[in-house]
Protein: Cytochrome c oxidase subunit IV bacterial aa3 type domain-containing protein
Organism: Aureimonas pseudogalii
Amino acid sequence: MAEDLGFDRDARGTMDYAEHNRTYAGFLGLVKYGSIGVVAILLGMLVGLIVGGGVIMSLLTVIVFAALAVVFLK
C-alpha cells in the first residue's frame, strides 16, 4: 500500500487547450451530423412504411432532408 507510485500525486499537470478545443469541436460535429442522420432515417421510414410512399420516395426524403439540414446548420 505504501509503495512508490513512480509519480507525484500532488503535482499539477498542464492541459493542452488546443487539443481540448479540437476534440470538443469534433464531438459537437459528430453529435450534430449524427442527429441529422438519425432524423433523416426516421423520416424516410415514416414516408416509406407508414405513409406508403415506397422505397424511392423514402430515399428521396432522406436525401432532401439531410441536404437541407446540413445547409441550414452551416
The two ends are 54 Å apart (CA to CA). The longest helix spans residues 17-51. The chain has a mean pLDDT of 90.
